[in-house]
Integrase zinc-binding domain-containing protein
Amino acid sequence: MNHHPPPIASIVSVVLQQYKHNHNVDFPNEIHNNYMNDSFLLSIVKMLWQYKNFALDNGLLYSIKGRRQLLCIPDVVIGRRTAKETVIDEGHSLLAHLGPEKTLAYLFKFVW
């Protein structure tokens, strides 16, 4: 059986929704609420007008890389894992367990 991953553009949003479904936690809201607990990202949010390569959209911070918007994941613990571990683990499951290198390659196109 040949597994084809979902389109790249939808991976992060699907990962976030999958986590909400599996754990009954609104992960995008948790990310938004935890920017204040990540000193680096908080400094960007507080002075966003000084950073032309960052933008807020629906309360989520994105790093702008050319035409791509990379969701900024705070360096915090949500539940029992870091937010970054959660995104990687959920992405790995979503991408049909393609292995660590392929999973990270896909996710790094959309997460910072």
In short: Strands lie at 54-57, 60-65, 68-71, 77-78, 81-82. The chain has one domain: 8-107.
